Each structure stands twice: as C-alpha cells, then as structure tokens.
Design the sequence.
C-alpha cells in the first residue's frame, strides 16, 4: 500500500484526469462520427435533389426517359459519387459507373457500384421521401440516398451512392490521434499532479520537520506561519496555540513541582532538625522532649495538610476526583463554618458575623463546599487587621445563591490580585498570620503560613459545582470574595 500522500494525490489526480480525458475523447469521437454521417447524408440528399431537377428538365428536351437520364448523367460528373436512375421494379435505367468498371478521380478510385442488390431492395420498398441505406462491401460499405421522382407520370428512384471508405479512413486517423495524445496527456497529468502535490504539501513537510525538533526543553519554539489566511496558515496557528498551552502546562508543572518540593522540604527539615537536637544528648529534661514533640506534631500536621491538598489537586487535574453529591442546606453550612471560625477569631481579637437572607437548598459535595468556605474564612482571618471583622453573607440572585466573604484588612494590591488563585502563590507573607483552620474546624498551630493552595482549591471546588469564585473587589478597607452556586436542577 502506498504510504506517501504526495504519490497518492498524484495518482488520484491522474485517475481523475484519465476519466475526464477518456470521456472527452469518446464524446469527441462520437460527435465527429455523427456529424460526418449527418453531413454525408445531407450531401447525398442535396446532390440527388439537384440531379432530380436536371432529370425532369432533360425529359422535356428528349423523347424517352432513358435519353433524359443519360443526358442528365452527362451533366453531373462527381469523382466520389455514383449516380443512377432505377425504376420501381429494381431495374437500372441509367448509371454513371457501370458494374465492373472503375473510375479514377484524382487520388481516390471510385469502385464500381453493383445496384442489383439495391434494386431488389427497392422493388420491396415504397419510397415516398428521401431514404438512406448502407450497402456493405469489402471496403467498409457504401452510403446510398434514395429519392423518388416522377417523369411523365412514370415513377422512378434516383440513387446517389458514396463509398464510406474515406469517412472511415478519416475516423481511423482521429482514433489514432486520440490513442497517441491520451497517453501523453496522462503522463503530463501524472507529472503535473506530483509536482502540484509536492508543492502543495511542502508547508506540511516543513511544519512536520520543524515540529519533530520541538521537545520538552524547546517548547518555546513555534511553527512558521506563511499565510495565516489559508488552510496551512490556520493549521500552523492552531498547532502554535497547542504548543503555547503545552508550554504553559509544562511551566506550571515545573513550578508546581518546584514549589511543592520547597513546601515539603521545609517541614521535613524542621522534623529532622528537632529529631537531631533531641537525640544529640543522651539525657534531656522531659520538658525539652515535650517541646520537640510539639514542634514535630505541628509540622507533621502541616506536612499532612500539604500532601492532602496536593493529592486533591492532582486527582482534580486528572478528573479522578469525583464529587459526592447530596442535598443539603447552604445556609446551615454557612452558619456552621462561621461558628468554627469564631473560635480562632476570638483569640485574635477579631469578630466573625454571618447572615442568610433565605433558605438555600442546594445539591453538591457538602464536604468540599465546607472546605471552600473555610478556606475563604481562613484567608480573611490571616490577612485581616487585628481587631477587625470578617462578614459572611448568603443571598440569592437570578441564577442561584451567592456567598460573600468580606474582611477589614488592608486589601490586596493589584499585582498580587492577578495571582491569588494560582497554586503555591502567597501574597505579602509579613501580613499573614500563622494559624489556620483545618477541614474539621479545629485550631492548628504552625510555624509557617499556609502553602498557598487554599484559594486554588476553593476555585476548583466552585467550578466543579458549576459555579464560580472571584475576587469581587479589594480596597484599603478590605477585600470581598464572591462564591456563586447554581440552583438545584429541575426534576
């Protein structure tokens, strides 16, 4: 099987051209043959009509029909025609070339025409108008026109005959020309089709060669775009867009791995350091061991939380994290999360308020939605001002429900706001507090701020439920996050 697209295109092009040329040749040959036959019949009929006029005129000047026919034949001398007069019984009255004679007319030899078989056919025919018959012979036949004529009330038939040999010879020459021209045309068509396909596919070959050199370390390279308006330019543009997305994904993956390694390295280093210090001296006071174990516990919890978040995001990226859908009331969940946040807020001199303007029955993964809301509250507590307030409200809009979390912090700078939903991105760490909320609402002490995954997870949870999470506004007086969740689907 032929693998080359260029060769296959050339073969298809040649096959199509061959069919078209063959149809054209057959049509042309048929047209020429029909036109030649039609013109021959017209020529014979016109000659017979002219001879009939001369025959009638000669009858007025002579005494017998035979003399009139002989005189008329002497007036009509054709190098390629046999003329004669036959009565209705098939007997020849007069003929310009007698049977057994040959008449040389230039380059052609007019073969003798035997009217006997035609005469027998005429005796059985009732001719009232021009009739055309073909009489076979050794050279391809003779075309005969029969025209009725009446002389002095005696019916006769004028016979005008012409050999078909010249016509057949001309048609043979036409066939020979077609047989010589068609193969040459097919060879030229095949060559032209191959050159055309090669030229047409050269941009694809160039793109494939360029694409074969692009690897994970050279994703910044792009395919050349000739004319962006044609199909190849559009293909190159689409592939370049794909390469851009791949480059972005690879870069995000590298950054993700680097940030994850950095985040995991710090608690691991602390754990190893505390263990080395505790084991450096054989005997230590129990208080020092308890302090070391407290640090180990805090860092272990932090490490466990980071690993759990990474695992959740990895499953989300691959589509393996399935939502555990169930019906629940969003207003009750918001109130429960607010109560959880108040415990930590009270230790910082902050206030958490909540309100719900309606009863909100929704369908979704309650644990993940709880985690989203706690992440927003945790973020507001970490970056809020000492003694400030955090307000969470639930309301309804045309498309569903809106949960709004406001804080009274210093706001988020525009340069930071563009990246807050990226993984491992953290804003101004000097403004962040050290304690965060766990998924279950307990306090957890840590020596580091969050890993920068909370808002990324929160946005994924919102989008997984068909909703959205955006930073609605951020000023010097605080920030406002809006979580939108659609209504229950109609049953």
Sequence:
């Amino acid at each position: 099987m032929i693998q080359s697209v260029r060769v296959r295109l050339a073969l298809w092009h040649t096959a199509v051209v061959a069919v078209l040329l063959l149809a054209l040749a057959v049509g042309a040959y048929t047209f020429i043959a029909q036109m030649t036959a039609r013109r021959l019949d017209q020529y014979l009929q016109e000659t017979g009509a002219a001879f009939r006029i001369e025959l009638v005129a000669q009858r007025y000047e002579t005494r017998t029909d035979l003399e009139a026919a002989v005189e008329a034949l002497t007036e009509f001398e054709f190098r390629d025609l046999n003329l004669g007069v036959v009565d209705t019984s098939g007997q020849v009255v007069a003929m310009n070339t007698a049977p057994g004679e040959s008449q040389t007319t230039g380059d052609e030899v007019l073969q003798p025409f035997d009217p006997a078989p035609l005469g027998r056919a005429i005796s059985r025919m009732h001719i009232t108008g021009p009739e055309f018959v073909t009489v076979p012979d050794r050279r391809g036949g003779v075309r005969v026109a029969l025209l009725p004529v009446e002389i002095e009330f005696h019916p006769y038939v004028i016979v005008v005959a012409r050999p078909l040999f010249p016509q057949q010879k001309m048609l043979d020459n036409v066939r020979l020309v077609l047989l010589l021209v068609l193969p040459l045309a097919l060879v030229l068509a095949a060559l032209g089709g191959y050159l055309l396909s090669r030229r047409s596919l050269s941009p694809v070959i160039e793109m494939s060669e360029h694409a074969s050199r692009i690897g994970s370390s050279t994703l910044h390279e792009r395919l050349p775009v000739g004319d962006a308006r044609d199909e190849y330019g559009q293909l190159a543009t689409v592939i370049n867009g794909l390469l851009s997305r791949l480059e972005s994904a690879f870069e995000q993956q590298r950054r993700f791995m680097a940030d994850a390694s950095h985040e995991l390295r710090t608690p691991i280093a602390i754990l190893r350091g505390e263990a080395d210090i505790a084991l450096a001296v054989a005997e230590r006071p129990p208080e020092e061991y308890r302090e070391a174990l407290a640090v180990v516990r805090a860092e272990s919890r932090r490490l466990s939380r980071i690993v759990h978040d990474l695992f959740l995001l990895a499953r989300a990226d691959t589509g393996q994290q399935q939502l555990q859908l169930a019906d629940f009331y969003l207003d009750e969940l918001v109130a429960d999360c607010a109560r959880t946040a108040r415990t930590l807020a009270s230790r910082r001199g902050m206030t958490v308020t909540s309100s719900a303007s309606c009863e909100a029955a929704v369908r979704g993964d309650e644990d993940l939605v709880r985690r989203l809301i706690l992440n927003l509250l945790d973020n507001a507590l970490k970056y809020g001002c000492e003694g400030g307030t955090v307000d969470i409200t639930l309301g309804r809009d045309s498309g569903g429900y809106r949960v709004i979390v406001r804080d009274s912090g210093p706001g988020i700078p525009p340069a930071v706001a563009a990246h807050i939903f990226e993984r491992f991105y953290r804003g101004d760490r000097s403004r962040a507090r050290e304690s965060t909320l766990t998924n279950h609402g307990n306090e957890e002490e840590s020596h580091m701020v969050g890993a920068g995954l909370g808002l990324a997870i929160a946005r994924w949870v919102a989008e997984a439920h068909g909703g959205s999470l955006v930073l609605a506004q951020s000023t010097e007086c605080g920030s406002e996050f809006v979580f939108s969740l659609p209504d229950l689907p109609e049953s």
In short: Residues 5-170 form a domain with the Beta-Lactamase fold (CATH 3.30.450.20).
